Fold:
Amino acid sequence: MTKCPRCFTPLPDDRTSWLPTAPGDVEVDDIATAFQGTPVRSGRVVDLDRPATADDDWSPDPSAVEEKVGGPAVEVCPTCHYRLPVGWRSAHATCIAMAGARATGKTVYIAVLVKSLQLLGERLNCVVEPATAETEMAYRELYEKPLYEERGILESTPAAHTSNQHQREPLIFSLGTWHGTRQFLVLRDVAGEDLENPNNVHVQHMRFFAQADGVVFMFDPLKVESVRQQLHDLVPVQERVGGDPRSVLRTVLSIIGDATPNLAVVLSKFDALQALQHVEGSEWSEIMSQPGAAFSRDPSLQYAPYNEIDGRLLHHEVRSLLDKLEAKSMVMAVDQPHTGAAVNSRFFAVSALGESPVGDRLHHNGISPFRCLDPVRWVLAQRGVWV
Ligand SMILES: Nc1nc2c(ncn2[C@@H]2O[C@H](COP(=O)(O)OP(=O)(O)OP(=O)(O)O)[C@@H](O)[C@H]2O)c(=O)[nH]1
Ligand SMILES: [Mg+2]
Ligand SMILES: [Zn+2]
Structure:
């Protein structure tokens, strides 16, 4: 069963929904509006249900669809009316939602992650490419160009109620064929601003977190006062600062409720912590200089299988680092969510850029990612993909 790339709800076997493509009457679509968070106007969506006598692998006859819709049509998700990419129903999709306060590095992470996935894909003989024209355009314009061509930092992701529509579109990538099935990866970037607002716990357009296969929650070590102080002369100050990570985590866990996505808790901007090695004589320089530590090496481009032992080692190291960062409450909130539900979680450390940007420009050394693939490979491995 495949999930919808926008609402992440499994597509039902016994219902298909269709949107006319010919120009005609347009009306407000209340369902799509609720799931997008801004008004959607379109033709009327028509549902076609599986007849009682049909087999389980039923799909409607194209001529029956055309007759019912009154012209040519495209398939949409019965739950949220999102237009499904071609061949979606027979493929597998792994759906990942980004989370974290503002300026924790979610958008930069996605920009860099895609490049790393492409490199790993080459080694696994799987072509990683945008699956739709919308994703190709959005990735190029909003992620790749500003970071890799203009070598600047990225704009803050706009909140869901704003009109900048394509920043809210899911990014859909083909991962090629794995064990005979076409595989897709869906990434939903989210505005930290939306997650810093606890009123968003119950809104429909945030419900996808509960249906996700993986939630990648980012935690910015530069939010920790003692780290910031020690780094004072070592790395350039970052102007954009986000809100309290604990309250964002609480909001995300509330949205997830008793659902069961895999939760990757990621210490982002790890290059900044690595720079603490150079603070002479400090406790931090000792911690960060351990050559044997998993967080001192990056095996993530080694191809299959996903390195579970290394992953577990890093998990424990990052947990104790968070402890030292006086962020033990984060670890506890993940281990014992206030919702009472148990979450399958793992801790990670990544640096998308490899070095701190200077002002609004990238560091002159360029981009050298560290352990970016780990969280996504872990989620993929839970689903038997690229293992
Ligand atoms: N040192 C360092 N800084 C980073 C890294 N990744 C991101 N940053 C910094 O963090 C800032 C914010 O990154 P974004 O990816 O835009 O943050 P975001 O989480 O998408 O923020 P919102 O869209 O507001 O939710 C960037 O402008 C960079 O200055 C990294 O790997 N290392
Ligand atoms: Mg962003
Ligand atoms: Zn949907």
Notes: The chain has a mean pLDDT of 91.
